[in-house]
What we know:
Structural class: mainly alpha
Oligomer: single chain
Number of strands: 2
Number of helices: 9
Distance between the termini: 37 Å
Largest sheet: 2 strands, antiparallel
Order of helices and strands: HHHEEHHHHHH
Strand content: under 5%
Strand order of the largest sheet: 1-2
Radius of gyration: 19 Å
Mean pLDDT: 83
Amino acid sequence: MNEQWSRRTFGGVLVASAASWTCISQGAARAASPQDDKPAPEKKADAPAGPAEAPFERDYAPPGFKPSWKKEQINRTMAQDFIIFAHSDLEMTKKLLEREPGLINASIDWGAGDWETALGGASHMGRKDIVEFLLSKGARIDLFCATMLGQLDAVKAFLALEPALIDARGPHGFGLHFHAQVGGEKAKETLDYLQTVKTVELKPIPFLNQKPPKKD
C-alpha cells in the first residue's frame, strides 16, 4: 500500500465477509489497548456528525462563467449509499439506480480527495457482475476497471499513451496491479504484463476468493 492509503482508515474495503462488505468511515476510532483502563475521552460537542467541507476562500479572480444551478443536486447520502452498495450488493445497486438514474457516475470524496464512483468500488472489489451491470447502464469505464476485467489491449494502449500511468492510483490508493489481482484468472495475463512493466510485491487479498452470498 502507498503512504497515502496507509494514513486512511477507510481501508475497510479489504475486510469483507461472504455475506457483506463493511465500509469503515474515515473517522473511525481505534480500539483501545487491553492495558489501557482509562475512560474514553468525551466527544466534543462541536465534532461534525458527518463529512465536513474544508474551508476555502478565493485568493484569485473567480471564473467568468457562472453556473445557473437550476436543477437540484442528487442527494449526497443517496450517492454515498449507492457507491457503498456497489462494492458488494448488486440488487441494492440496481434498486437505487432505478430510483435515480443520475447516480450512475456519481462520485464521493471520502476525504482529502479520495474520490470514488460506484464503478470504482465494484472494480477494486473484483465484482464483475456489478461492473458489467454499471457499464450496461452507461458508467464511464476507466483504466482501473479495464485492468480488473483483463482488457489487456486497452491497458497496453493506455500505458503506450502515457507510461507514467503504471503508477496511477484509483480509489483508496489501489493501483493497477491490485486491480489485476482482484480480476482473478481472467486478468492473469494483464497482471503478468504489468509485472513486466514494473515489478511489485503482490500481497494476499483477504476477500479475493469470496463469493457473493447465495439467494434464497
